[in-house]
Here is the input.
Amino acid sequence: MMGLLLLCVLILYAVMSDFPVTGRAYKNKAISRSTLSCFSSTFVDYDDLIKLYLTSDDLSVQCYFISGLKIQENANQTIDLLTSRGLTPSLTITNSTYTGIFHFNLSSEKDDFYWTIDIPRKEITNKEDIAPVEEWFVSITLQEGLDTYTTEGTILDLIREPILQWVIGKPMKNTDMKKLVKSVMRIKLTKCPCANDVALIGLTTGGSTSGIYIGLTHSGFWEDSDTVWFDVKNGICPYNDEECMRATIVEIVLTNYHLVLLTSVGLYISSDLRYPNGTLLFSRINFCGFDMEDYIRAKLWYHEICLANQEDFEDDYIAITFEKSRTMSQMATCFYSFAPFDDWKSCVPNPREKRRKRGEAQLKSFLIDIEMKTGIYLFSTKVNEDIEFDTALAPQYITAHELVFFAYVPLDATEKMKKDLRFYPRHIGRKLQLNSYGNADIMKIMYHEDLVGFPSSAFVALLDPFTAEFPSMNSSLKGAITIQRHKNALFKINLIPESKNEAPAFKDTDIMKTVVIPGYSSLLIVEILNGSMALALATMPDNVFLLKKIASTRWFLYKFGASNDSGWFITTSSCKHALIHDDVNTARNIIKYLDLGATFHFQIKVLSSVSYNTRSTKTPLLKIITGQPFLLDIITSARWDETDSYIVEMDILNRYLRKGITSIAFIIWQATIDCHTSTITLKVKSSCSYNKHMRFLPKYKISLDNWEEGKYQDEHGYNIIKTLPINYRPPSSLGIAIPTTDNFYHADPSKPKPRNYHPLSKQSGKYKKCLNKTSRKDCNCTMEEKMSQI
Here is the structure.
């Protein structure tokens, strides 16, 4: 199995380097020469990364001091020095709803210097039910509030995370996994929406090898030994159907409550992960009229959202798209559904209506905006999306660090050529690279149809100087030139010898080269008349240096042609921006809860390595988009600090009686695709905090025995305790006889469920601690749970 693990992890790093399986931070931390190495009961060594695991027992953590680059630094002496000064590490545990700070104690072992701490589970959480759990971030530092020997990481709740409570399929042996390596064609990855360290890897196999092979990790694939592999074929093929047994994975998605598998023979939805019952089983979703070829090319679209504290306005949903045109036997080619994903609807309203246009754009993706309750469609048409185009460019220097490249279009070009040989907005943010040497970032695209020969241009910021031609390589540069107007927007360049010993001459190879004259218009040579005369087009016709002699030392020749030796190409630009904010362990997605009247202050900073010569301090570096602008009051201010970093501060106030969620996206609009993070999303929930509970405070002091017995008489002799019927569920909006809630009160799995006749009632209602138990005693409820008055 190790061979396949190494293969999959290497592929993971190669093709999915941005896959955020650890939820790591982007904080601006000082770099220490020494670090603290910490672990819980399960030893895992991640160097500068801590991974702790929460079980039903106390969280026990040990931290060692690891010497850094200082040769004279001794760990034991350093610990003695720090302890004598009263310094011990502190551990900060945080997520969107919880913050706790704990302090370590020095071990009493004389020969083994380390710090220890034991934190009761109830100090972090008092919940043990199986449900989506937001992963905690941890920060261990020597001095609270200072970044001294700081080490960061995560805490994962192993007993509550739903997918970890299941046997996904038939466990596989090492020998079986080794046989699969040569048949693996690609891998598919998915992670838990709430706990990013929990992830699944699906293997797509080819040839004679088939099967549904899935690996499960709880450390984000950082540790080989914690990845468990399963063959899930029996879970989706209970009747050993021949076609089903030949299935392989196409896509895999882990939602909050279900595991979704798109295979070559169909779409499969797992049972609810919150209610483990041995081996995971799947049900197939039938889409009429689609075959194996359709499923292999299909795509799943999942709007990832953590439902750790789910509100009534939140839900999971998935969409599936088929890359084909709809036939008469198919209702649609795009479908979507909400959890539990048993009712699928067409993404497009009235999909059977006659299309208005022949060759209508194809639906590629579908998403639902839960904030505005709207659908978002992505259509595709046959548009040329090529980044490069094959023509000559004429450089026009504006300053020493700024240029404009004019894209040449021949005067006799067809309409198609005019469309193809030009810059487009998609080029903005990319890098223009000369094959020989030199590159620049494309900042802006401009159009000027009235400029003969150059209908489009790109404004660029110079990164590395472009190579110019040398007199030793091109004899024309040994002479002076004069320029005069010709006809049809052309200019004539005359080459003049500067000495009797030199015989400068234009050659046919100079066509599509650009004469650059500092302070004046550049000229692209389009025709050689003879050795001393050439015709050219001007990039700035009103600023041509006319009729005056220009010495050989005052003009230059550049070649941005279409040939391989001197050509150019457009590629991705290197990242020059970074986002930093002061929130806890700055993950990409942040969740904040705002109760009525509550406020939240948020600050974000953009760091830029753009050259001061080309940087604009008047243009904001951040674009801010709010998903639901009418939900909350948002006051924003921005400024440049003393380090030329761009800072945005935001005060968010919940002053209205409105429940909902809004996303606030902070986008570096100048960021390139090479940036690890160009967007951070802040999600703010407006609702009563889930940390608040309603508790009944009786007028009388009632003992636990009275509560358990269900009897207590007031001063008038009346029993004031009402005992609910066994397995009681309150009425729904459909009536008293049709309960639809999942909650049972006074649960006892050995007794009948009253009013459980309607199909909606049978589908709802799920035991929690009594799940898969045969008696109330087996539920093993604690006294606190029995006496709960919530």
